[in-house]
Design brief:
Layout lengths: L17 H21 L6 H10 L6 H11 L7 H24 L3 E2 L2 E2 L1 H5 L1 H22 L2 H24 L7 H26 L4 H28 L2 H4 L5 H4 L5 H9 L2 H12 L5 H13 L2 H20 L6 H15 L3
Antiparallel strand pairs: 1-2
Helix pairs in contact: 1-3, 1-4, 1-16, 2-6, 3-4, 3-8, 4-6, 4-7, 4-8, 7-8, 8-9, 9-15, 9-16, 12-14, 12-15, 15-16
């Protein structure tokens, strides 16, 4: 099952993270070394579980944002390495916890840590990584950076709880959904981008520009992920397509199909999502309803909207290869559905 979402003609087709990868390559090598070092422990299971996910092929976009956001303002110290590593550890810890809460079997094409070592180990190793992240933040010595990242950690946890509260509830509104993804996903993107200019000692306007960029990029990124769950491929998504449906998650494609559907359609959604009848036949019907009512195309339209806000946030900043690379990340994030 898959679908091609039409994007604006001639736009986003060649978008890539390669410019950002190339610009941050040297610093990312240092980040990767620090990741391996800080994931180590005398307790054998900790590096085993941590490295299972750390080495599973993620793009590490969030730490690259931190590196780029510092470098574009001329920062030439070492603190961005520790902050980027902290960001990646926060993200990895969230994934470990998410897979337990969502009872996920697959992550980035591999069995989740919880499937191999169990739920308890996944949660506890996630806590270990969070502890290491905060130790590195303290070592950096920037109270402002510590405040931004610790606040993000709190917001992410709130988003997790909020998602639990709206799970399998077909009365969830688009505003509720946006509140969840703003907390769960976009908050860390925003923090990752904001701490760069903080350690580069920039002015408030430049710091706010990167924060806005990160927040809106994160919203666009998650909207596309949620569309891919119904219209993508497992290899692109990093998990099984249809997992959100099977887990009873209320994402925007479902919200739109529910609100635009007939009484009969809404009865189906209640049975499938609230009643837990999420077999393959119902997944196929859900996909057909989402397509019929424009749930995928309109979800991507929302992503493009937030992508444009992210682009406008960077508009006042001076031209540079760093800025160009960050702008292309927006296009790449949305082009994943093409």
């Amino acid at each position: 099952m898959g679908v091609v979402i039409p994007l604006e003609e001639g736009k986003n087709k060649q978008a890539s993270v390669k410019p950002l990868v190339d610009l941050t390559k040297a610093d990312m090598e240092r980040v990767n070394q620090l990741i391996l070092s800080k994931a180590g422990s005398d307790v054998q299971m900790i590096p085993e579980v941590a490295n299972h996910l750390i080495s599973s092929g993620g793009k590490r976009l969030r730490p690259m944002l931190t590196l780029a956001a510092a470098s574009m303002f001329g920062y030439d110290g070492d603190h961005h390495i520790k902050l980027a590593t902290s960001v990646e550890f926060m993200h990895t810890a969230t994934l470990l916890h998410d897979d337990v809460v969502d009872e996920s079997d697959l992550r980035r094409g591999k069995s989740t840590a919880r499937m191999i070592w169990g739920n308890q180990a996944s949660v506890l190793v996630g806590d270990f990584l969070l502890g290491q992240a905060f130790k590195m933040m303290v070592e950096v010595g920037s109270l402002e950076a510590l405040d931004v990242l610790s606040t993000a950690a709190t917001v992410i946890a709130e988003g997790e709880v909020l998602q639990l509260s709206v799970a399998k509830n077909m009365e969830t509104t688009e505003d509720d959904y946006l509140q969840v993804i703003r907390a769960k996903t976009a908050a860390l993107f925003a923090a990752a981008a904001e701490v760069g200019p903080i350690i580069a000692s920039t002015n408030r306007a430049e710091r706010n520009a990167l924060k806005s960029y990160g927040m809106n990029l994160g919203l666009a990124f998650q909207l596309v992920d949620d569309a891919l769950d119904y219209g993508g491929k497992a290899a692109d998504l990093g998990k099984n397509t249809g997992d959100d449906f099977r887990e009873g998650k209320i994402t925007l494609p479902v919200i739109l199909a529910w609100r635009r559907g007939t009484t009969e359609d809404r009865a189906f959604w209640r049975e499938a999502i609230e009643g837990g009848k999420s077999d393959d036949a119902n997944l196929e019907r859900a996909f057909n309803l989402i397509t019929r009512y424009g749930g995928l195309t309109d979800t991507i339209a929302r992503a493009q909207h937030y992508g444009m806000i992210a682009r406008d946030a960077l508009a006042p900043l001076p031209a540079s290869p760093w800025k160009d690379a960050l702008l292309e990340v927006i296009d790449f994030s949305i082009a994943r559905v093409s």
